[in-house]
Amino acid sequence: MNDQFRSPAADTLHAARLDRLAEIAVRVGLGLKAGQEVVITAPIEALPLVRRITEHAYKAGSSLVTTLFSDEESTLLRFQHAKDDTFDNATGWLYDGMAAAYKSGAARLAIVGDDPSLLAKQDTDKVSRANRARSKAYRPALDLIVGFDINWTIVSAATPAWAKAVFPEVSEAVAVAKLWDAIFAASRADLDDPIGAWNTHNANLHARTKLLNAKSYATLHFRGPGTDLRVGLADDHEWNGGSSRAKNGVVCNANIPTEEVFTTPHKDRVDGFVRSTKPLSYQGTLIQDIEVKFENGRIVESRARTGEAVLNKVLETDEGSRRLGEVALVPNSSPISQSGLLFLNTLFDENASSHIALGQAYSKCIRNGGSMSEQELAAKGANTSLIHIDWMIGSSEVDVDGVTAEGEAEPLMRRGEWVTQ
Amino acid sequence: MNDQFRSPAADTLHAARLDRLAEIAVRVGLGLKAGQEVVITAPIEALPLVRRITEHAYKAGSSLVTTLFSDEESTLLRFQHAKDDTFDNATGWLYDGMAAAYKSGAARLAIVGDDPSLLAKQDTDKVSRANRARSKAYRPALDLIVGFDINWTIVSAATPAWAKAVFPEVSEAVAVAKLWDAIFAASRADLDDPIGAWNTHNANLHARTKLLNAKSYATLHFRGPGTDLRVGLADDHEWNGGSSRAKNGVVCNANIPTEEVFTTPHKDRVDGFVRSTKPLSYQGTLIQDIEVKFENGRIVESRARTGEAVLNKVLETDEGSRRLGEVALVPNSSPISQSGLLFLNTLFDENASSHIALGQAYSKCIRNGGSMSEQELAAKGANTSLIHIDWMIGSSEVDVDGVTAEGEAEPLMRRGEWVTQ
Ligand SMILES: [Zn+2]
Ligand SMILES: [Zn+2]
Ligand SMILES: [Zn+2]
Ligand SMILES: [Zn+2]
């Protein structure tokens, strides 16, 4: 078989699905309002998707669409050639400009397709200094995003480097085509009525969060091979999932795809042990078979079959990096899980399985959390950290109970699936 | 012959010249100082040149290199699909960000490769509204550039659309290769010691401006077929050419290539008639065989063999658009002129021949003009306008005299060449 060959029919199908993904991004992801400006960030390889999104955004009445392209090769050239004393710099002027755009009403669309190991071989000190400078400079703009002041979304594009990491055994062209097909399927862009399918999917996720919010469990209890973990939930925690209304009044789906319902654990009330069920791809390192033990919310023991040193470095980031900021439930029958792929990208992998996240909690997962101070949030049990790293703990062998304040256990998931539909 | 075929040797040569052009852009164009941030703007097709420039900038000690890529196809999608009431918008937040970068010490590198007729078929009202909004939003950043507060440069890259416009008779691949070769030659990137060649070239241009400044002519007198034009020069005019020192102290070459020495005419002292010697490419229209008559600095009659309507619309922009803002001398033996190509791009075409520009004057072409108010500059004779459009009036058939304050004519150019070397 000739790897380079794609039939005209395959090209037509790809173009149609790319256009559908663009429509999903604009209508479902952003929920774009007429007259709204759009700021897109994208890897340069995502140009064809950027153009489809640009057209759909203008058709939906966008006042102006601007794309800020990034080039990973240029990023790499920095680490290879810049002088050692320059790595504490970041483009504050650009991030400030983006924050100004959001404040004046712009929506935010991120296209991701990162090479999972771009900086794996670069000097870790330079990388962490550059990351820190970037995080600091980006903070004012990022606060408007994670605080949901504006409608935003993240979608993905199959770039050659990412595709080769997911499908190392085939040619680049085949890998890219396979990854696109996986993205289209996970994002429901392979369906004839993707907008209708997303409406149904959002309704299902909303029904699930409504049920869980009505229960208001004190604790989730995970049991499976290597796992017996009690995750206490924050006081006044709220479950979220699917579309949500930003503070600017626009209903958006922040992640395309999304399969999870999630909430905030109590930072001091996590106990027991847990084993990861899928590898975690973190900045070029694959961390496999994580096993940790929690006491009073804090990780007191940790090991991993591969990447243990990186894991332990992550845990030392700050006080909050040893505690949980998120717990999420995803059935094992989710389309992403069923694909059997490890995407090496959180946007996909966290939607393949129930998961927990080390680090920062989401204020919107606390009732009225959006208007609370950091102290008020902490008093409810919400964790604070510079990191937020999701890792997978669900599988077809894992059961989950919801435990009421009275200590009564109710079955939520059995063998990885919801007990009630 | 197979158009698509390029030999490995041709590829190697192209890569070497691209790298040399990048080195010229960084070392000659920007004169980059260690620790300086660099802001690049580039068409997305210029990615290979952007990467070479990025590497050279980091090697020269740049603190951070950021490229803002533009995509002409996305621009076109705006004019095709955006609602009619949106064309007065511009990305003020991005231009303000760029201005902030320049104010904090960044250098500015523009890569141009525009499709000369990208918007030729679009609604002229939408185009002019978008241009006006963009000009207004860009003004604060542009002022720092044209006022030479910072070091900056413009270089070019052969994009497919531009290449096909210059070489319509060959395939796209051949056209791009031919245009690259022309760019390399005009930019001296085809030489073994391009930096040395640029040093010599700058020294020659400086010697020429020194001579002309010492003469301080009252008037330039152009004579040739269809031309008998007296261009009075502004009081305290200064000739410029080649590299110059920006207000931040850095010596840069603002245009790569550059062959001209130029100064400011007196806006009220231009008389006679003049015929263009090369076509003018203006926003997708080719304006050929322009013939205009000046009285007291003002164009009182105008016609053109093609594009006359566009020319007359340009002349109606504002009061200053009928008067001159620049006069420049370029010998007919300049490498760009000798290539015999019409580049459909001012960066090249204005360096092929002596030229005049309708519209805005450069304050740096008036002695101490950088610190003068607009009124002070106008009192010296410097013109003001929203436009600055260069068009070619030199050729091997045109003679130029310098006329002293006492009315004595001295031969400057004969048959298009300098009389003194
Ligand atoms: Zn999650
Ligand atoms: Zn998460
Ligand atoms: Zn000029
Ligand atoms: Zn000019």
Automatic annotation (TrEMBL), chains A, B:
What would be an example GO MF term here? Answer: metallopeptidase activity
Required co-factors = Co(2+); Mg(2+); Zn(2+)
- List, alphabetically, the Gene3D superfamilies matched: Thermophilic metalloprotease (M29)
Q: Which UniProt keywords apply?
A: Aminopeptidase, Hydrolase, Metal-binding, Metalloprotease, Protease
The GO annotation for biological process reads: proteolysis
Q: Which Pfam families match?
A: Peptidase_M29
Question: What does the similarity note say?
Answer: Belongs to the peptidase M29 family.
PANTHER family of this UniProt entry? AMINOPEPTIDASE (PTHR34448), AMINOPEPTIDASE AMPS (PTHR34448:SF3)
Tell me the protein's name.
Answer: Aminopeptidase
